[in-house]
Amino acid sequence: MAKRTSSLYTQPFHRRETLRFECTGCGACCTGTEESHVFLEPGEAEAIRHHLGLSTAWFRRRYLARTGEEETVLAWGAEPGRCVFLGADGRCRIYPVRPLQCRTYPFWPEVVATRKAWEQEARRCEGIGRGAPVPLARIEAELERQR
Q1: Are 127 and 25 in contact, with CB atoms under 8 Å apart?
Q2: What is the per-residue pLDDT across 134-146, written as a single tens digit (0 to 9) for each?
Q3: Residue 76's beta-bridge partner residues?
Q4: CA–CA separation, 122 vs 118, rounded Å?
Q5: Does the predicted TM-score (pTM) go above 0.70?
Q6: Does the residue 2 lie in any domain?
Q7: Does residue 52 lie in a domain region?
Q8: Which of 36, 75, 95, 122 sits in a 20 to 30 Å window from 84, CA-based?
Q9: Helices H, strands E: what count in the chain?
Q10: pLDDT, tens digit, 9 for 90 and up, residues 117-135
Q11: How many CB atoms lie within 10 A of CB 128?
């Protein structure tokens, strides 16, 4: 018997299902494991530095690190797994200039690819599954920004 294939089953999860997301401001997306990284796109470090009003040398020493691939990442603060810019009140101190990785959360390719990944991320983020349906065009635009 021939295997039946349908574009419904070959499309990414986010195209087959209606996804809901509404940020609650809980800050859970700004915490993780020691292995977590916030990768910076070109120009993002400078925008953050300028927003904070710091010298280039001080900002680089205090807030930047390199991964094994030589990509620039934000260094963690005193608490491993917690973004150094996550304030005590749970709010982002660099929100207007936060990195692309932060702006596009939770619409990362690996999170919206499968139902399992989406549901796993929902255990960490209370905003997943809340609010109005997110238009597919917005999800696609967020994914495109990350390419």
Answers
A1: no
A2: 999 999 999 999 9
A3: 83
A4: 6
A5: yes
A6: no
A7: yes
A8: 122
A9: 8, 4
A10: 999 999 999 999 999 999 9
A11: 21
